[in-house]
Amino acid sequence: MTPTQCRAARALISWTQQQLADTARVGVATLQNFETGSSTPRHATVEVLQRALGVAGVVFLDDGEMVDGGAGVRLAKP
């Protein structure tokens, strides 16, 4: 998951940084730094963030997967 995907995923489900940080049990500063690109968290931290967003219904698309133009996110079918 890229920082841009993380921000877009939160926007899709109308979550604040605080909501995602609480759900994933990571520090809000860690999330803020990741989303702004000012630091790169451990791989395990990115995984728990992505997992929390996935449980909330976000599907992550890799570069070139189902769309042209790079990596992205979408909502899962209910």
Give structural notes:
With 78 residues, this protein is mostly helical. The chain has a single domain, classed as 434 Repressor (Amino-terminal Domain). 51% of the residues lie in helices and 10% in strands. The chain has helices at 3-12, 17-24, 28-36, 43-55, and strands spanning 58-61, 72-75. Strands 1-2 form a two-stranded antiparallel ribbon. The mean pLDDT is 88.
Helices and strands in order:
Elements: H1 3-12, H2 17-24, H3 28-36, H4 43-55, E1 58-61, E2 72-75
Antiparallel strand pairs: 1-2
Helix pairs in contact: 2-3, 2-4
Label this structure with key terms.
434 Repressor (Amino-terminal Domain), 4 helices, 78 residues, mainly alpha
Structure summary:
With 78 residues, the protein is mostly helical. It has a single domain, classed as Orthogonal Bundle (434 Repressor (Amino-terminal Domain)), CATH 1.10.260.40.
**CATH level-4 homologous superfamily:** lambda repressor-like DNA-binding domains
Helical segment count: 4
Structural class based on helices, strands and sheet pairing: mainly alpha
CATH domain class: Mainly Alpha
